[in-house]
Amino acid sequence: RVRARHGRGRREAYGRSRAHTVTWLDGRPTVEGVEADDHEASRSLLSLVKGPDGRVVRRPEELPEGYAGFLLVDHASEIRAPYSRRGLAAKVREDDLEAWVRLAVLRARTLGRWPPEGRGSGGRRAAGRIRAGGRRGLTAPASRRTPAGRPMPSLAALEDLRDRLSVEDLRRFLLGYGAVTNYDRRLEELWGKVRREVDLERGDHRDALIDWLRHWGCRHLRIRDHAETSAALLAWWRERGGSLPGRDRDLLDLRPEELEALARAFDALAGRVAASRERMGRPAAVRVGPTAAAKALFALRPRTCPPWDEPIRAGLGFGADGAAYRRLLEAGAEALRGFAAQVGIPPAELPRRLGREGSTLAKLLDEYLWARVTRGIG
To answer: How far apart are CA 214 and CA 308, in angstroms?
Structure first.
């Protein structure tokens, strides 16, 4: 157990009087919050994210573990004032006491101050209790429930999208995606290199795709193994490329035979050996894997195939093979159809109405799941 105390007041900061908070753990001030410019509407304060060395984190790839449950924003964009800090900040409502305590525990852990001195494993158990909770319970089959009996987070997110979310709700999640990531910048770089159509028969297109996959987190595709990875992609493309749905096919329109073809193509690509390296003095094969396979399929068929990262895959509880990928496509399409029906907007109009004109329906699905599941924005 740890004693937490949260104080609220005001102070001069960034050119004017702003709401200010401090959260203590066992009498030690651990995190501070300062009023965001939109405080009157959002009632939220900002707390800069710091790494293990105590420095402000400036890029998403530098984030310590554990920030998935917080809305992360650019501090300088939320406080436009002289001397506003450059870096990422957690944006937390001033009355969300549980969130402030969780943030303090996370800061203490990042800086190596958790559990508190002399508390041993009891401190870790307390942290687990503080992190728990916060999601609405939804009915789901037992095979898709967590050991604690809650529905898998991705499945709950898809059910919410299908049955409950408003346009403003979904727009808020998409804004959370945009506030934290620079993935669209990398994607636009890829589209610029290939003129928005990846052709794996071309070596320069394979080079561009592999470079983009590395920037999108697939770092097992090492630069030194580039030639082997490129050859693997070409071999897969010549074997499976002709079976993929046409480039004009949308996720919501896929027929059963197209879904099956995508599942087979996914399995063939994920299992393809893309590199080799030594482990424990012995040669070992490095395969493309499910994350890189899903992202490559998205690059090849952006209207049809959503990317699929590890947290979303784990949160669905479907597995990581082609059959699981097919279930993702089917469940995602069902959720998008249900959302469009309950808000009264034709599916084709959703990207424009949500302020994401450059995104396909498949990418909208991924942006929502990334914000809701990967980053835990609530």
So the answer is: 15
